[in-house]
Amino acid sequence: MPNKSGQAHFVAELEDTPVAPIDRLDESQKARSTWADAWDSMRRRPMFWISSVLILIIALVALFPGLFTSVSPNLDCQLANSNGGPEAGHPFGFTRQGCDVYARTIFGTRASVTVGLLATGLVTLMGVILGSLAGYYGGWLDAIVSRVGDIFFAIPTILGAIVLMSVLPAATPTSVAFVLSIFAWPQIARIMRGAVLSATNSDYVMASTALGVSKFRILLRHVIPNSIAPVIVIATVSLGTFIVAESTLSFLGIGLPTSVMSWGNDISQAQTSLVTNPQVLLYPAAALSITVLAFLMLGDILRDALDPKARALR
Amino acid sequence: MSQTLTDTNPGGVESDEQPLLQIRNLEVGFQTQRGLVPAVRGVDITLYSGQTLAIVGESGSGKTTTAQAIIDLLPGAGKITGGQVLFEGRDLTKLSPKDIQAVRGNLIGYVPQDPMSNLNPVWNIGFQVEEAIKANGLAQGKEARARTIQVLQEAGLSDAADRLKQYPHQFSGGMRQRVLIGIGLSARPKLLIADEPTSALDVTVQRQILDHLGTLTRDYGTSVLFITHDLGLAAERAEQLVVMYKGKIVESGPSQEILANPQHPYTQRLVSAAPSLASRRIQSAKHASVGDSGIYGGGSLDDTLVARAAERESLAPVKDLISIDNISKVYRIRKKGLRSEELKAVDGVTFGIQKGTTTALVGESGSGKSTVAKLVLQLESITSGSIEFDGQDVAGLKGKELLKFRRRVQPVFQDPYGSLDPQYSVGNTIAEPLLAHGVGTAKERQERVKELLDQVSLPWSSRFRYPSELSGGQRQRIAIARALALKPDVLVLDEAVSALDVLVQGQVLNLLTELQTELGLTYLFITHDLAVVRLVADNVCVMQKGRIVEAASTDDVFDNPQQAYTQELLAAIPGGNFQFGR
């Protein structure tokens, strides 16, 4: 066959196209895991640092409120200061009872954050355990967990909590968290079950089975670590909603008793002086919003960092 | 780019004819966070009207990117950074998006790689073909429907009129690829770009599709640009060949000439790694060692593997290590309502595997070969029949006994991207079976991991890596190391090299046979690729529809196939009898 122009046998110069060893591991690159990768992407985002710093401050305030104010939130109340405006040493002004709004906001953090953290922890624990058992073992266990979950899923969390709280004798942050988590676990359980189902069908689970690894060990060592990412994201987001739920319950008067300082109680008590003294409502509400926002932002960033599709683009 | 032109055809007539497609010094880069990464670096390709040209290269060589750059189909971050793409003298890189749209489909047709994902599952086939016909302005209204039927008939779907209302899931892979070819050729383009058009299909279907594509393009005088990783296919179907490596062309010219006499070291490597049926195992008995460079160099694979096979044959004892007697596996498939249907995935299969040998189970998709693997591994229970391992029936094994069996029979699976836990580092992955069986102390396990990494030629430092950082071949080597951790007697290799590039495939096969000789392993090798079987197997069982249709020694099956089905399979291997120069 005659060679047409430009189609003769061409061989590239060897210096120009050196031949590398076949499939040798490039040792110059640093080793990295999913979590190291996620960390790498998160730390580049300013929002991550903003929300982390906020959460750190909130945690500090919740643990050591005394560091932030020397004024007692309920002992230094003087009716003379009732509904007073801001003054030196009392930047947020006074409530109707003459208590310092700044001090109350600071001291209210602990109860609100405790409920949020505790409820999130409980929901995650219940959801992860029940969801992974249901998804992994299937059969009747799955049927029971899923149907019971559906029943609780059908009851709105707040509505269920209102009913249950109204029959409970004394509410503490712990009991409020328990009540909230009883009605909120199915969401996490559902997500976990779905993630576990897809991980269970993966090849590495079959490979481990064939290697002789026991079924329960596979669940613990392979399936759960590979399914937990979406749960972490949802849990971070729901932390904010639990704090809101506690405030709602306290606002309705069936949450924490008025003797316990919380943002919800303060917002509730602000009703009476709303028109004359809006700052009483403003500051606890702002603290609540900032806290919820910080956790929502973190959840958002975590989702981006752990999303395999978003990771592939990096 | 400096070039050496070696005209090996001095008597050839230099033609003045204008090329249909002329790519000059094409450069394509991908924008990433770390800046522009070049993917194609100075590529020149010339294609004349009516010719067929194949671009061959491993994954990541830039072959698909080159093809996509021609018709401006580069994915998001990709862009042409230099050079020209002259199509009938017109530079396609300078055209506006609107003008290039008129070129696409009408003048240059495209057949995508994966027939399974390139048809929209929510629209019926008729709609999708008609859409392409209307978009190319070939016909409108009633005429378009008639044209649709004609296009599908030409693509080889004889009952096209009745199938217009059917959806992609009702079509087999081969039929879907015919539809895509029909769409690609519907406007009678002057050039058809076919990106690995048959790599997802069985060999016999592949042959039909390629034959049909060849006839169509010859009838219409269409030029074809094949993108493929398969040298055999290139040798058989293309007049011109372009070998790409790391974004550059290393060798180009008439395909037969290059494959018979490869000049560039990379081409030589590719050619020597390509498994070919023409390589006679027994005759080439010279024992070529792999050389100083170990498995990374890639000497002539055939000779090495063949010598090892001969060595095994002289040693093999008579008693079967695994004997499989008349096993069946029936799945119940739920139908509408409460009815269910039986599906016989494996139907009365009987064969034996001698210690220290390799038995290959060959068949097309759906033949039941992978089910047999799962039955042997006790990952699924058999419906009837028996499997004996070392004189013991394995069907009812439980608890400790099962664990003992698992220790001796280990699997390596097909998909190196799926069979390793992405959250586990390499070191932990390899140590897992040791830990699960409670072998040794932490220090002894670490020593064993080191030894295993060494056996699969990976550095000790790789123990901290995660699967996402490794290539497919490296992952498969990790999977092999994990399988070897407990010093098993048998490895069940389920399509263990099918997903790998030719060179890497050769490397892994080399490693597997080396380990077999060294450790006296017995392999059950499950594959759809007969060319690979010839290289590694001592005995072959050919499966079709759940049954074994032919079982014999490798040489008997290849030299003297008894069954029509086996003959058909052998004939369908692209370039199967092409004598590569080595």
Q: Would you mind describing this structure in some detail?
A:
The complex is a heterodimer of chains A (314) and B (582). Chain A is mostly helical and 314 residues long. Chain A has a domain at 110-312: MetI-like (MetI-like fold, Orthogonal Bundle), CATH 1.10.3720.10. Chain A contains eleven helices and one strand, in the order βααααααααααα. In chain A, α1 crosses α10, α6 (173-200) runs antiparallel to α8 and α8 (215-251) runs antiparallel to α10 (279-306). The mean pLDDT of chain A is 83. Chain B has 582 residues and is an alpha/beta fold. Chain B has two domains: 23-61 and 72-273, 3-Layer(aba) Sandwich (Rossmann fold), CATH 3.40.50; 303-416 and 489-572, Rossmann fold (3-Layer(aba) Sandwich), CATH 3.40.50. Chain B has 20 helices and 21 strands. In chain B, the strands form four sheets. In chain B, strands 7-8-9-4-10-11 form a six-stranded mixed β-sheet, sandwiched between helices. Chain B has a six-stranded mixed β-sheet with strand order 17-18-19-14-20-21, sandwiched between helices. A four-stranded antiparallel β-sheet of chain B has the order 3-2-5-6. In chain B, α7 packs across α20 (564-572) and α16 (472-484) runs parallel beside α17. The two termini of chain B are 28 Å apart. Mean pLDDT of chain B is 82; it is low at 1-14 and 280-293. At the A-B interface, β1, α7 and α8 of A face β1, β11, α10, α13 and α14 of B.
Distance from first to last alpha carbon of chain A? 48 Å
Structural class of chain A: mainly alpha
Helix/sheet category of chain B: alpha/beta
The rounded distance between the terminal residues' Cα atoms of chain B is 28 Å
Number of helices of chain B: 20
Average pLDDT across residues of chain B?
82
CATH superfamily of the largest domain in chain B: P-loop containing nucleotide triphosphate hydrolases
Query: What strand line-up does the widest sheet of chain B have?
Result: 7-8-9-4-10-11
Radius of gyration of chain A from the CA trace? 28 Å
Strand composition percent of chain A: under 5%
Largest sheet of chain A: none
Low-pLDDT stretches of chain B are: 1-14, 280-293
E-strand count of chain A: 1
Multimerization status:
heterodimer
Domain ABC transmembrane type-1 (chain A): 109-299
Membrane topology (chain A): Multi-pass membrane protein
Protein name (chain A): ABC transporter permease
Transmembrane segments (chain A): 48-68, 117-139, 151-184, 232-256, 281-302
